[in-house]
């Protein structure tokens, strides 16, 4: 039986905020916003505290080679400091945008209103990544919001069967460490203790990923306090 497939989400704050607000995030307090560059001066413009960083990037042969090597090391050595991170194994095609949003909102400590998303996160606590994935697959509210958001983007909605070579990952701070969350991996990835800040340290990992591609199809979005003029 083929794995289910959803329409891919665009990487833009408007879509992310519509998705999140529908499912219980008060976007007047925290919202998703574009990060326009990775230089220290540009990063300093982002309102703090940053709660999560989302990256959209092209999957290249060089990236896949690095990812598989890291995953093999994870299988061999394990990962410290991530046992209580809410991590979802991605079992739905083209749904990495929603998985990135779930990874951000499940782990960043931003309050959510009572509703299906808050309840799902509560139900996730004692489950495995695959059991959490089943909760997503069976959540009609989540699938509805994902589909509505995907169909209301700024570009034409692709066919459901199109293979997308762009992928989302999420970076969060957990117990002082920079954690990368990607449903394609074997587990969360611990990048070590944060030195400068979540955004600044995540930017260094993003630069490494960018170096593995000749593409310009990269986009960074932060979850941070909503600017007063929004």
UniProtKB/TrEMBL annotation:
UniProt-annotated site: Transition state stabilizer, residues: 90
Alphabetized InterPro entries for the sequence: Papain-like_cys_pep_sf, Peptidase_C12_UCH, Peptidase_C12_UCH_sf, UCH_AS
The keyword Transferase is annotated on this UniProt entry: no
Marked site: Important for enzyme activity: 182
GO cellular component, one term: cytoplasm
Catalytic activity reported: Thiol-dependent hydrolysis of ester, thioester, amide, peptide and isopeptide bonds formed by the C-terminal Gly of ubiquitin (a 76-residue protein attached to proteins as an intracellular targeting signal)
Keywords: Hydrolase, Protease, Thiol protease, Ubl conjugation pathway
Molecular functions (GO terms): cysteine-type deubiquitinase activity
PANTHER family membership: UBIQUITIN CARBOXYL-TERMINAL HYDROLASE (PTHR10589)
Family: Belongs to the peptidase C12 family.
Stated name of the protein: Ubiquitin carboxyl-terminal hydrolase
Organism in which the protein naturally occurs: Leucosporidium creatinivorum
């Amino acid at each position: 039986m083929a794995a289910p497939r959803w329409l891919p989400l665009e990487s833009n704050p408007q879509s992310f905020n519509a998705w999140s607000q529908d499912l219980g995030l008060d976007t007047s307090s925290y919202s998703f916003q574009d990060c326009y560059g990775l230089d220290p001066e540009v990063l300093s413009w982002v309102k703090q505290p940053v709660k999560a960083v989302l990256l959209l990037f092209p999957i290249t042969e060089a990236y896949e080679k690095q990812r598989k090597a890291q995953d093999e090391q994870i299988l061999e050595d394990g990962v410290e400091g991530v046992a209580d991170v809410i991590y979802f194994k991605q079992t739905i095609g083209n749904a990495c945008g929603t998985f990135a949003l779930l990874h951000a909102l499940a782990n960043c400590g931003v309050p959510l209103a009572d509703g299906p998303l808050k309840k799902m996160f509560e139900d996730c606590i004692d489950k495995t990544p695959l059991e959490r994935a089943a909760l997503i697959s069976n959540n009609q509210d989540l699938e509805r919001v994902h589909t509505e958001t995907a169909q209301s983007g700024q570009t034409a909605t692709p066919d459901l069967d199109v293979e997308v070579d762009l992928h989302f990952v999420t970076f969060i701070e957990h117990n002082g460490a920079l954690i990368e969350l990607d449903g394609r991996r074997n587990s969360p990835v611990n990048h070590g203790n944060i030195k400068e800040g979540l955004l600044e340290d995540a930017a260094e990992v993003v630069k490494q990923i960018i170096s593995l591609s000749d593409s310009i199809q990269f986009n960074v979005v932060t979850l941070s306090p909503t600017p007063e003029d929004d």
